[in-house]
TrEMBL record:
Residues 110-119 have a biased composition (Basic and acidic residues). Keywords: DNA damage, DNA repair, Magnesium, Metal-binding. The lineage of its organism: Eukaryota, Haptista, Haptophyta, Prymnesiophyceae, Prymnesiales. The keyword DNA damage applies. GO terms for biological process: DNA repair. The keyword Methyltransferase does not apply. It comes from Haptolina ericina. Residues 109-129 are annotated as: Disordered. This is XPG N-terminal domain-containing protein. PANTHER family: FLAP ENDONUCLEASE 1, FLAP ENDONUCLEASE FAMILY MEMBER. Signal peptide: none annotated. InterPro entries: PIN-like_dom_sf, XPG/Rad2, XPG_CS, XPG_DNA_repair_N. Residues 5-113 form the XPG N-terminal domain. GO terms for molecular function: 5'-3' exonuclease activity; 5'-flap endonuclease activity; metal ion binding. Coiled coil: none annotated.
């Protein structure tokens, strides 16, 4: 399934074996707690969500470096602190060798999406531009530093 990240089959397993183990809750219900947050997943969320202009490009600084993730982290952190939540962002280490095949497949899909984005930009289809731009998201090592 496109766009799915994380441990394959985990949600199905949890739904089957611990159906009450996962629930959605409002942020305000977490007041007074410390929460560990997957920083890498957050980076991808922010790169997908924080976009601008007709080409749905990421925010960037004067040197052309993408900054959408920084804006996203800032907004989310402020919101959590306002709700009395202490966020702790956890960054992934080096991926295990077992994951290399998955990473190669993702890189191939991103490469295909870049071609689709180019075609969508030429065609001027705003919806297709947005979809293709989202599929080309790449988090750099600097973003995870």
């Amino acid at each position: 399934q496109a766009g799915v990240m994380g441990i394959k089959g985990l949600m199905g397993f949890l739904n089957d074996h611990a159906p009450r183990g996962v629930k959605e809750t409002k942020m305000e219900a977490m007041t007074g707690r410390t929460l560990a947050i997957d920083a890498s997943m957050s980076i991808y969320q922010f790169l997908a969500a924080v976009r601008q202009g007709a080409d749905h490009s990421n925010l960037s600084n004067s040197a052309g470096e993408v900054t959408s993730h920084i804006q996203g982290f800032l907004n989310r952190t402020i919101r959590m602190l306002e709700c009395g939540i202490k966020p702790i962002y956890v960054f992934d280490g080096k991926p295990p060798a077992l994951k290399q095949e998955t990473l190669a497949a993702r890189a191939h899909k991103k490469s295909e999406a870049e071609g689709e984005l180019h075609a969508a930009l030429e065609g001027g289809d705003d919806d297709e531009i947005r979809k293709a731009a989202t599929r080309t998201i790449r988090a750099t090592p600097e973003m995870n530093a």
